[in-house]
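Subgroup meeting minutes
Present: P.N., E.W., G.H.
Scribe: E.W.

1. P.N. recapped why we're keeping a running log of single-chain structure predictions: easier to compare across weeks, and new members can see raw inputs and outputs side by side.
2. G.H. added today's entry (242 aa).
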Amino acid sequence: MDVPLTGVRLLVPPSRIALNPLQTMLRRKGAEVVSFPALVAGRPDPAALDEAVAVVETYQWLVFAGEASVAHFFERLDAHGGAPADLTGRFGAIGHGALKALRAHGVEVSYRPKEHFAEGVVRGMGRVAEQRVLLVRELHASDQLPTRLQEAGARVTAVSGHEVQVDVSRASAREAWARRLDGVAFANPATVRLLWDALAQLGGDPERCLAAVTVAVVGPATAQAAEARGLIPDHVAGGRLK
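Output recorded in log:
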């Protein structure tokens, strides 16, 4: 969105516990940004993560998405008697939060993708055929990245390192819809799911709540998530899935 957005009121569901960069970008362009729902961090069952940690030396790549996933991984590593110095695989960080958290643990990050779309991440990793890749990320994250890695020949283990849950109230919903919305912007597939979850908790109808507003999404996977719920995007940044 390169045009000024002064006077435009946009619903931008948060994509993480910390500030969503898309919200900041849109505010700089003059938009009035409405953030709904609120998010809280949770911890999924660590069983699958523990299994991966127990054989962590067998992975050529350790790829993290989310600061909370990094924190949980190193907690489980410590619980198993391991230390960052024991890790021999190459590290990838998807997003600034994961990068900052890995560096805080003294880990050298080999790869930080410029594009967070699955195709861009895999392309930047180079040749991954026959390599074991551990992907630690949010519970319920899109299957796009592990699928693309497998198509490139990698042997992928995708485990949940953190969970994002909605924390909603009728008051926050009334405030969001107090005045007319001009559009809704989704940063990733999780934002679509979380908004639907929040409205479902309140007994709301997402299609009715978003009727007659412009729908913008970032990336083909987000477009797919919106379309799966009957919401057809008007604008897709990064292209649409073929």
